[in-house]
Amino acid sequence: MPRFQTLEQALKYYFGYDKFRPGQEQIIESALQNRDLLVIMPTGGGKSLCFQLPALMKPGVMIVVSPLISLMQDQVDSLRDNGIGATFINSSISLPEIRNREENILAGKIKLLYVAPEKLLSDKFLGFLDMIAANIGVSAFAVDEAHCVSHWGHDFRPEYRQMIQLRRRYPGIPLLALTATATKRVQVDIVEQLGLKKPMIHIASFNRTNLYYEIVPKERRSYEQLLNYIRKEKGAGIIYCTSRKTVDEIATSLQNDRISALPYHAGMSDEERSKNQTRFIRDDVQIMVATVAFGMGINKPDVRFVVHYDLPRNLEGYYQESGRAGRDGEAAKCTLFFSFGDLKKIEHFIDQKPDDNERLIARQQLRKVVDYAEGNECRRTIVLRYFGEVYEGNCGLCDNCCNPQPQEDWTVDAQKFLSCVARCHEKFGVTHLIDVLRGSKNKKIEQYGHHSLSTYGIGKDRTPEQWKLLARSLVHQGLVDESHDGYRILKLNQKSWEVLRKQRSVFIAVPRKAAEPVSEDTNIMMAETELLFDRLRRLRKSLADEVGVPPYVVFHDSTLKLMAQIRPKNLQEFGNISGVGQSKIQKYGAIFVAEIGNFCQEYDLPQAITQESPKVLSNTYALTLQYYQQGLVIEEIALRRNLTISTIYTHLARLISTGESIDLDKLVLPAKQMLVLKVIKQTDDINLVNLKEILGDGFSYDEIKLVVAWWKKQSSCPKK
Length: 720
Ligand code: ADP
Ligand code: MG
Ligand code: ZN
Description:
Elements: H1 7-15, H2 24-32, E1 37-40, H3 48-57, E2 61-65, H4 69-81, E3 86-89, H5 95-106, E4 112-115, H6 117-120, H7 123-135, E5 138-143, H8 158-161, H9 164-169, E6 175-179, H10 184-194, E7 200-203, E8 211-217, H11 222-232, E9 236-240, H12 244-256, E10 261-264, H13 270-281, E11 287-290, E12 303-308, H14 315-322, E13 332-338, H15 340-351, H16 356-374, H17 379-386, H18 399-402, E14 407-409, H19 411-423, H20 430-437, H21 443-447, H22 464-476, E15 481-482, E16 490-491, H23 494-500, E17 507-509, H24 527-547, H25 551-554, H26 557-566, H27 571-575, H28 582-602, H29 613-629, H30 634-641, H31 645-657, H32 664-667, H33 670-683, H34 688-695, H35 701-716
Parallel strand pairs: 1-6, 1-7, 2-4, 2-5, 3-4, 5-6, 8-13, 9-11, 9-12, 10-11, 12-13
Antiparallel strand pairs: 14-17, 15-16
Helix pairs in contact: 2-3, 15-16, 16-17, 19-20, 19-23, 20-22, 24-26, 24-28, 28-29, 29-31, 30-31, 31-35, 33-35, 34-35
Residues 378-380, 395, 398, 400-401 line the site of zinc ion.
């Protein structure tokens, strides 16, 4: 293990990042002191690093408990791409493969081992754990998504309850629990259920400083509204809807409108869901239309916007879901479509609940959502207040701060409205009152004799929508009372009378058109930077597809953006970019620097090419090619170059695809080549993982990789 002077150096070396996110450094220090820890950070706050870095800096293996297979896979992929020894064991792995992984662990090649809780607590695995503890050592247990241990959370998992056994069996090994749950009750539960001993509790701020929050009044033609919204956005987005039916409808409509979108909800088969999820994560599709069933397993860092098409039922849920935007720290947008119609629907639904207490809680929770949506304050102030934080406002990155709602004096209208409430003897709800004010010919009006009231027809100058807005606002400001019996009858109160007596004016915040966020760093890029960024994204996608990982495993958007801005001309400059660690320089440095070089030439941009840089660019491939031409076998080349065999295959694949003369027949049996080509043609797919799945164990990834490269080359040049 290399020695580091500071934690920051270690961070840069392994993960490529320049700076810690708020809280990370202190947490890591406590972890290194072998304390039990409870880490509470918002979604996207950077919790994983809080156990990953200590795992690398301590002797032994860190055991990471994670509730979902997709989460394990994702984290392990990312770690491995950073050259870090990580693996997972769960029910999806075959027995021989498990044995193989166990051997690697006992051989000391693994620093992080991810397991599902039920696996962890099986007798067999506990036996294996004893062996690790005795031979290699266990540096700590990290329990991710620790709220799953609590009944009070939203993802309770019985298996998590058994985890106390770990504490009993290994009393001396520290336990780290991590969650994004904000409620006290769950926090207390975690400490008790996991048996944490005098834990250091780190509660990070829930403020996500890169997210733009906005409320958009949901229009009647809400689908068109959504479509226009999406057409203006770039990058991946999630559209949350309440019902499965809406999810299906919206996804289909978007597809018809040529937006690449897929649905996700609990009514679909597991297979279909995981297929759609993978396509979203790998950037094969831009938009995921989903119910809240879509979420926890998603670590995709480059989601650029999250839209709530329907009103959420509680603010904590909303914050978690919208928090899936912009985990990479880049600008991202959280938009909530708000309509009174939706609100009514939910209220109606709540009113059907038979249990009094449940109904009360549901109403209170919904109230918080409405306070958030209708408030004129900084959105951050409102939502952080809900989490018990004081935020003084003026964030400059929410609709209320960037584009305050104009306040209009509607005192006269309010007087008309309230006097109508009085004339109708405080026995009616908003709809009826508006009918009276607008002089409706509705039968009901005549029945009650309301067509002869003095307020009948005095409000034709305002639309029903405007009257509704006024009514809502009056209720909201406490200028009129509303009954809670489900009929929502309006009644005058002290303040209503003050308005009627002209002792009080009424101001209404009128909705304005959605504005664009005005943050300084919001994707304002120079044209050429944007072009290069696109180009690097494509390169990233093809590299990621070659090995079957999500593109963000290779590099985050934020890192590509820096590359596009800085245009590094050699590996050293490349390595200085945030997000480029030691292993990424080796793996991708040459390819990316070359691509950037080509781009600069094409567009005649300065890259201040130094003498040695062209050599650096092609060095790694040229060297492999040279050895290959000297007749060395791949194992020898790998040995001499101190690279893995698989890396050499990747080099050869690149060399093949760039047209170097490499005899494929010597590397892959011709009969096997034919079979691979047949599958490529049949499935029209060159994703290695998919191909491997069809071709089976008789074919290695390396072989498939080479044939794919050859095929790509063939299909890109005209036949002679
Ligand atoms: P959480 O588990 O808290 O929701 P993650 O651990 O998944 O968040 O981290 C979110 C994203 O932030 C990841 O893509 C991770 O690579 C990135 N990240 C974490 N720490 C840093 C850092 N110090 N600098 C830059 N990016 C970071
Ligand atoms: Mg996490
Ligand atoms: Zn604000």
